[in-house]
Specification:
- The longest helix is centred in the N-terminal third of the chain and has 48 residues.
- Helix 1 runs antiparallel to helix 8, helix 3 runs antiparallel to helix 5 and helix 8 runs antiparallel to helix 10.
- By secondary structure, this protein is mostly helical.
- It has one domain.
- The chain has twelve helices and two strands.
- The protein starts with 20 loop residues before the first helix and ends in a 9-residue tail after the last helix.
- A two-stranded antiparallel sheet has the order 1-2.
Length: 325
């Protein structure tokens, strides 16, 4: 009798992977990091600019109040030059900006989650913010040197605030789009720009501070998910050229030097405009006064300098002349 064997049965068992809580958490973290990347690229520099502008606008308002009180005219009566006035304001702004920069740098490192703020040597942000505050305040002094009435002072304050904030926002957007498109370094974004645009941007303090933040973020990454591997930005990086090896860009230290140069230039411009646009004080100088030897030469013994239209000096001395009295 033949035996019949049952056919062998085979079973295919396939296991499908399902999203676990850990993988879902990683996806949420990645989305959060991407959102932080976008937020930093487009909003970090404008937000810092708004904070820096607070000191600049306060300086503008206070200088205008002193002009309305006739402080500059009183300084002339006692023999002080306008340069003493502007240099005293520069010293005050430099001291307050230094304290604010140190406090802001510490807050950036302790409070924020952005690596360009937290993974950076403390001195880098303190120096950059101090130079940025000096240049912005000097620009505000230029505006304060030509306005006096409250209406024009408020308009100048609004122009300074809106202009700096919007220029920082617009350029941050251009820089963010350029980085997303794989720009070699920060300066490549403007490689096709006109000379006029380059000159204007080079005179704006937000342009140079935005460059510093961009260079820091290229090394540290914005969040811990940076593809290039996040690192810490040290003082040695601060002095080194940025960008790729074959396509370097000026260092962050160079940008700070440019900000200091802008500060000196703006203070000089405020000193000049403050003496030309002072007709409301009754003692405006001609626009070519820096080329007059009588301005730089000391007056003869017993004589004091007088300006055309300075009626108070004429009353004090009946032998007063336009050049000296």
């Amino acid at each position: 009798m033949a035996s019949v064997s049952a056919p062998a049965s085979t079973f295919d068992l396939s296991l499908a992977s399902f999203a676990t809580s850990s993988s879902g958490g990683r996806q949420e973290q990645q989305q959060r990091n991407d959102s932080l990347d976008i937020l930093f690229r487009y909003a970090a520099a404008p937000l810092v600019t708004i904070g820096v502008l607070t000191q600049s606008i306060v300086a503008l308002q206070l200088i205008a109040v002193e002009k309305r009180a006739g402080l500059m005219g009183q300084m002339r009566l006692v023999g002080l030059h306008e340069s003493a006035y502007w240099l005293s304001w520069l010293a005050l702004v430099a001291a307050t900006a230094l304290v604010a920069a140190v406090v802001a740098a510490a807050a950036m490192a302790l409070i924020t989650e952005f690596r360009p703020f937290s993974e950076v040597s403390f001195g880098v942000h303190a120096i950059a913010l101090w130079c940025y505050s000096l240049a912005s305040s000097a620009l505000a002094m230029v505006m304060a040197s030509v306005v006096r009435r409250p209406r024009w002072v408020n308009m100048a304050s609004f122009t300074l605030f809106a202009g700096a904030a919007m220029s920082s926002l617009v350029f941050s957007a251009e820089a963010g789009d350029g980085a997303a498109d794989g720009a070699a370094n920060w300066y490549d974004i403007l490689s096709q720009s006109s000379w006029g645009k380059r000159i204007v941007l080079s005179l704006l303090p937000p342009f140079h501070y935005g460059k510093i933040l961009s260079e820091i973020s290229q090394i540290t990454g914005i969040t811990s998910s940076a593809a290039a591997g996040p690192a810490q930005y040290t003082m040695s990086d601060f002095f080194q050229e940025a960008g790729a090896a074959g396509n370097p860009a000026p260092s962050a230290f160079f940008s700070c030097l440019v900000l200091l140069a802008l500060c000196v230039g703006y203070i000089g411009l405020a000193w000049y405009l403050g003496q030309v646009f002072t007709a409301d004080l009754g003692a405006a100088r001609p626009f070519y006064f820096p080329g007059l030897p009588s301005y730089w030469a000391p007056p003869p013994p017993g004589l004091q300098e007088a300006l055309e239209g300075d009626t108070l000096m004429e009353v004090r001395s009946p032998h007063c002349t336009v050049a000296h009295c």
